[in-house]
Design brief:
The chain has about 525 residues and is mainly beta. It is about 5% helix and about 45% strand. It is built from three helices and 40 strands.
């Protein structure tokens, strides 16, 4: 980084200057002194994409009083037309209809068993010649079904196995497959059926490290003769077995291979489909199934979460046995890994932007369960609410009231940089630039020296409104009112803030703390600094 040329008429000090673009993702793996350009030391509550870093979506209550405590599952159903769509949520005692926003969602099914495991369910839709159904299974109440034509829930019917012992469901190749509690056994029904005699398939003999069957997933791959759906079975000890075929009866079902993932976090929400792949959340990070079975060596950078490995590993180790682990795709084009949150540490979500593959961490979201319904992301909380991620502020009430709404607080800290010189630097000026709409963020720019990655968490307060008054000559305030009234209501206006800085050090990292209530994209920093000697 070359020094800036001195201005002898105004100062005897030569200031170096540099533009720093918004980073793409957080990197907790590389040495602090050697983060690649484009990587950040800290990204909190922002997601890469849309021309820079954008604060995460806010949330609004969809329903309150869903239960007196935890909302354990979000159960989405998409019917034969939008009027048949339903959003259900389960607690430890009941399933409620949360399709319409309000304070008193209706009970639609009362569980026969209410305990610490009830309500943690898995669901899947199926269509038969007679009707459309949503099939649900949980740890304590087993096989339940919702019927579209009657708009009603009821107990599932099956013979050959006890329906109350079925804890996981997968519709696969026009059959319903179930997982039996505390066993290595799966059960499947006849073609295009939601009842009848179930047939057993025991995976125990193909799980070399033992454990019980956690779940089954469908993996769409090109098997050489066009796309085909493979059946993937995962054990609690991390064994993964892949099968191809249509008829489960031997020899029509053939095993393609078996691998081991290592350990898994608790619960059965350990995988999600992404395009033609399956992402598996393991104790070592998120691993695409395609890379596991490719025959190549699995190295640390094979995992999607490689750059977040230390932070995610810490969460997995300390919270492994807690409820709340989930992995799913957010409609805003990012992957979300939910952590339960442990004693003494805030709950976080790890988010990977599919626009840049950059990672960040989200906070301020009490997510115990989650799902996507009608193209939007919904989550269940520990205090009996179902919320929809939308808008630019948190905690909007179900009626749209903003009395208790909160701004979204974010923190961005770029990589530390010495410029290849072991000299001391003192930053004098930091200019941050944003794209905004109707309200500008409250901003506090900062500079961290010598690999200090402490998070800035002090509250900044709500963001301010932009003066949208038309620019009237001799009336508008110079340097405040826009020259062109059309510019003030354009989709994205440029907003810059200039701050001074304090401190000095050999390595310097630009940072910014934001409090936002409207559309905002952080574009980057411009900094100017003075350079001294080595000592």
């Amino acid at each position: 980084m070359p020094l800036g040329a001195p201005d002898t008429q105004q100062s005897d000090v030569a200031l170096a200057q540099r533009h720093i673009p918004a980073p793409l993702g957080e990197n907790a793996v590389s040495p602090a002194s050697a983060l690649p350009e484009g990587d950040a030391a800290v990204l909190l509550n922002v997601i890469s994409g849309d021309g820079g870093l954008k604060p995460r979506p806010g949330f609004q209550e969809q329903c309150i009083n869903v239960g007196t405590g935890e909302v354990r599952s979000i159960i989405s159903y998409h019917g034969s037309d939008p009027s048949k769509d339903r959003l259900f949520a389960s607690t430890s005692t009941v399933i409620k209809n949360c399709s319409s926003s309000g304070s008193a969602p209706a009970d639609v099914y009362t569980f026969g068993t209410s305990d610490s495991n009830a309500g943690y369910g898995i669901s899947g839709a199926v269509v038969t010649a007679g009707d459309r159904y949503l099939i649900y299974c949980d740890e304590s109440n087993g096989f339940l079904q919702y019927t579209q034509s009657t708009d009603a829930w009821g107990a599932g019917s099956v013979s050959g196995v006890t329906a109350a012992n079925l804890v996981f469901v997968l519709p696969w190749k026009n059959r319903l497959w179930f997982v039996e509690r505390n066993s290595s056994r799966a059960w499947y029904l006849p073609l295009a059926s939601i009842s009848g005699t179930a047939t057993k398939m025991d995976f125990g003999e193909v799980f070399p490290t033992g454990g019980y069957l956690v779940g089954l997933w469908s993996w769409t791959v090109d098997a050489g003769q066009g796309a085909d759906d493979m059946l993937v079975a995962v054990s609690s000890s991390g064994d993964v077995v892949v099968y191809a075929g249509t008829d489960p009866q031997y020899p029509n079902m053939r095993q393609l291979g078996a691998w081991n993932l290592g350990g898994l976090p608790s619960g059965r929400r350990i995988a999600t489909q992404k395009g033609g792949d399956i992402l598996l959340n393991t104790m070592l990070g998120v691993l695409p199934l395609s890379k596991l079975v490719s025959g190549e060596a699995v190295t640390p950078d094979t995992y999607e979460t490689f750059k977040e490995r230390p932070r995610l590993r810490e969460a997995l180790t300390s919270q492994r046995n807690l409820r709340g682990w989930d992995i799913l795709l957010h409609p805003d084009n990012f992957l979300l890994i939910n952590t339960p949150g442990g004693s003494g540490s805030p709950q976080e979500q790890f988010a990977m932007s599919y626009a840049t593959k950059g990672w960040s961490r989200l906070r301020g979201l009490d997510i115990l369960s989650a799902g996507v319904w009608q193209g939007a992301f919904y989550f269940g909380t520990r205090d009996g609410r179902v919320c929809k991620m939308t808008g630019y502020v948190d905690n909007v009430s179900y009626g749209g009231g903003t009395a208790n709404a909160r701004s979204i607080d974010s923190f961005i800290l770029d990589r530390a940089d010495t410029g290849g010189r072991a000299t001391y630097k003192q930053v004098h000026l930091v200019r941050t630039t944003f794209l905004t709409r109707n309200a500008v963020p409250n901003v506090r720019a900062t500079v961290h020296y010598n690999y200090d990655t402490r998070e800035e968490v002090s509250a900044l307060g709500a963001s301010a409104s932009i003066n949208l008054q038309a620019s009237v000559w001799d009336t508008a305030v110079f340097d405040v009112g826009p020259w062109d009234a059309a510019l003030a209501v354009s989709p994205r206006d440029v907003y810059s803030v200039v701050n001074g800085a304090e401190g000095c050090g050999v390595a310097m990292a630009a940072g910014v703390q934001l409090s936002t209530t409207d559309y905002c994209v952080f574009v980057g920093w411009d900094i100017a600094w003075e350079e001294g000697g080595v000592l």
